[in-house]
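Encode chain A's predicted structure.
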Amino acid sequence: MDCLLPRIVLAASLSIACGALRAQAGTMDGYLGVPGERVDEAFGGGFSMYVAAWPLLAEHPGPQFQTGLFGTWMHALAPDGAPEGKRYSDIEGGLGWWRDTRFPTATPKFIMGGVALDFSAWANGPGAGKGRDWQKPQGKYGVAQLSPWVLWPPDGLNLRQGTCGELFGYGYLPLPLTEPKAKTAGADVPTGDQCWTLFLSTATFRGPVAFFTPFFFSCVTVERPELRGLFLDSRPANPNRALQMETQYVPAAVAADRDGTAYARIAPTRFPVTADGESILVHRITSYRRAALWDPVARWFAGGPAASGRIDEAHAVLHRVTGKGWSSWRIHTPDVAKEARVGIDWQAFATPFAPDPHTFGYRWNADVVALDRREQGGLATLPEYFVREGEGKNARWRPRAADAVPVREALARVPLGERPEKRPEPYVTPADGCWVEPGPVAGPFEARLGDGSTVVYRWYRFADQPALRNADLTAAERERLQARVEKLHRSWTADRDYLPAPARGRLAELDPALLVTPPRGLEVGHVPIVTWQGLR
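Encoded structure for chain A:
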């Protein structure tokens, strides 16, 4: 039989080889967007929100898999007259899966995701940043551990395995932990005093966990003095942030029948669903004036009454969601040009809605979406097969029943993901320098995490942790910081509310192995620092 090549508008190398249909590996990627009403720029003192956490795919499909769940990008608010040009820097991160994850599971992890100028460095948490070469830290010293009760693994903050639809509450607000500096690393450029601090609201831990050192954002101005004062160390945040779910890779396969009609299969992709068949995904997006927390803490540090740590909702604004939403998810093979990639007909099976003015979710078309309705832990599985219909700008991938896909067997032969065979390398911190001088005061201790890895951690005096030894602080400045944090450790316990509580849903839990108790005598002014993570 002669080999025939079908005509495919996708420009993909799909073929019929000697009578046998051949499929090609591809990907599904793009964004899901949540439009909201704008708020006054006076609310530039940080944000909080509750987002659903769930296993997007039933099994982690291998090292190419990268997607966030719903999250945001918090940029510095540009002052009037700011110089033109690229100066990308923000706090993003959130829940998801990343290509550099070494101990992946179907359950998402959380990273902080601070980005220095134009991705010159990024900081994902204490000891976690761009790459693993400690000779080029590139953000690995950018976050300081604040909580004495929570471990932060360099591979990401773990949730309890099996989390499915519970709400994960988090936000960033600045704390006046350090003083502003007129010089940065000896150069005549300033560094601000805003320590953007991650607060969590979960079923098993509430309160501040870690913060970006101001030097992480300002250090680039030593070489770029024209950018002084433009980053989050000193500027308020832009409260009108994008809220989206960014997907960079979900495995897919594409094939064509003998007439050239293209079909696709995606890895079974799920969203959490209630017994009513609805997905509640984002709740209580809130922005704050700096006075919501900064002012009472500053008065406390100046000798006034102790601040409770509870964020003052009189200085808050709830963002209203419109109940609308959009999708740019596409299916394509690697050789298709970006401008030729075809989007999914998302509206064929998902309808965005707002059950109240401050909550966003989807309703599903039960004719094409498989709904496992439960009171807790239910999942909506999106259509697995699609057909490409239409031409040009009107082309869309539309759901198709499996038994109506003539190339189903060819698509089934393409593996949707590949598990790595070799054992992942451990994360290892240096055994010299600031890690041992002055070094830890207790440890090592071990904890076995739900992702199968083990972490080794040691207790450091707060001001002596490696991140603060690399934060452009003098010994006297670190001691003032130590005194302030000792106040926090005595007063801000983990059994009280800090962020405003959710009005619906159940809260997610952290991996129980991440919750620790300080050794006797180290309850105040000391923090646990993970120095190794790997498989035993």
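The two ends are 55 Å apart (CA to CA).
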